[in-house]
Amino acid sequence: MKRHVARAGAGLGVLVLLSGGFFWFGGYDRWSTGRLLSSACGGVLPADQVRSILGERHLEVGDDGSRGSLDDTTTSLRVVCGISRDTEKNAGKHTDDGSLTVTINGVPTVDREDRRYESLYPRIRSELPPAPLGQGWNGVFSVGDSHGEGEATTAVLLDCAPGRGDLLVTVSLDVDGYLGDSPLDNPERRTAFARVATDTATNASRRWNCDAPLGEPLTTAPLPVNEDEHVAPGDAEGTCSGITAQGKTVARAWESERGTTPFEECVLGDTEGHTTYRLAAHYGPYAEGARHDYAERSGDPHPVASGQRSGVLANGGYWTTAACPGSGEPALFTLNQYSDKTKTSEADRAYALSVLKVFAERSAAPRRCTTPAAPTATTAP
To answer: pTM of the predicted model, to two decimals?
Structure first.
């Protein structure tokens, strides 16, 4: 009898040791990662969603702290943090690095002078048009370039309660390091990444008393158009709709669906697939940020200087504006030219102005903005 008890006790001891080892080698990583994630970025990160992207182990968090608040009239709310996955030591195989960067901005920026030589908000970096996030969110999903390299970005703009400004939440994923197996093609993994932004926005709305209307929990995330998914301009039904072709110079169009977004694009190209024109509609923080960049960083004329509503960019492109309800910042519409051939002919200039006019009007109409000013090839003194 004693021998059986001793054996049972020894077996129990082994189980305890094994369970303790399991916690040490498995549970501890999850516990320590949870502590890191719960305190980063003002405590608004969705830890489970971050883990679903970067995994459980070997995560590092860099946090520059939070500054300002939505009620502060001197310093804008700004929070930036990065979460990276280290290469495992002695793993016996290569493990790609991976990283997420999360930025939370109060809108508008009230301390512009302090940030004169930097962008006010993270940019949407993509070669082709980003896709509307949908499902009740005012946001976009983009991929760095047509080969799935660079950065994948999800941006969500929250319309806070009156008197509190707005919140812009931007989450970028390092595609080069982490997405060697192109998981953005996997709808579940793509949605998990996009939910980092929407869940962070939901938490940030409570954390900073934004009290914004929120979208639905994401069940899917759109995949932006790729380089093979072009249409003839006359067949465009989304952000390039209404634009006509121009011989071999403008024979292809890359577009996204129209939706509730603070930023949208239409890209036009020639018969060989080279970009000829890029049209962009900037609303809210993106209009504010573009004006800041043109005026303070690029040396271009300020788009609203001297009461102007349209004009010429220093790079030879054109811009126009429209007033939109619920926004103190007029929407900004731009056309940038990518071919020297389009900068010399009077016919080409007339075509570019007509394209910007159509693009701006069709973007502004569903948002109940005023009719954009007629684009012009001259800049008032």
So the answer is: 0.87
